[in-house]
Specification:
single chain; 166 residues; mainly beta; 7-stranded mixed sheet; 3-stranded mixed sheet; 2 helices
């Protein structure tokens, strides 16, 4: 009876996995292109980050906002962003609601592609990161995850990021 019970339990677990009863770990969920949805930052919503971007130089091109896990292995690593939003740039200030998978530590990176060509033009495009770290020639625009990380609880965290241009 014990052997039969183990076999049935094993079969049930296999069937549950095949049916999708167990979800993939959150770490496997990267590169989600999403659209702006202010309702995700409404009272009682979350977890999410209300990102206010200030100092946008001009109303041309595209603003891209990406969220990352606030870890050394994920922060600004190619393809390791969680969610990405893009919108036409508006000079001055723009606000985005960035949902995150669960409470935890995150970082936000922003890029202003002024001419909208999809390439980084270091002499014209702008960039910014959560906690507004200094960027210099020694870190080549990639400050440590420790300088950009912030905590998100079960609700909505509000942050302000200041754009920087060359």
């Amino acid at each position: 009876m014990t052997r039969r019970l183990k076999t049935l339990t094993g079969l049930a677990a296999t069937a549950a996995l095949a049916a999708g009863a167990f979800s993939a770990p959150a770490a496997a969920q990267y590169r989600q292109k999403i659209t702006e949805n202010p309702a995700k930052c409404a009272a009682g919503a979350g977890p999410a980050v209300r990102v206010t971007i200030t100092g946008i130089k001009e109303s041309s091109g595209t603003i891209r906002v990406q969220s990352y896990r606030g870890t050394k292995g994920d922060w600004l690593e190619k393809g390791r962003w969680i969610n990405r939003m893009e919108a036409p740039a508006r000079a001055g200030t723009m606000t985005f609601c960035m949902p995150v998978p669960r409470p935890g530590t995150y970082g936000i990176a922003v890029r202003h592609d002024i001419n909208g060509n999809g390439e980084t033009d270091i002499f014209s495009d702008g960039g910014a990161m959560s906690n507004n770290p200094s960027i210099n020639i020694f870190n080549l625009g990639k400050p440590s995850y420790k300088k950009t990380a912030f905590t998100v609880g079960s609700g909505v965290e509000s942050i302000s990021i200041r754009m920087r241009y060359r």
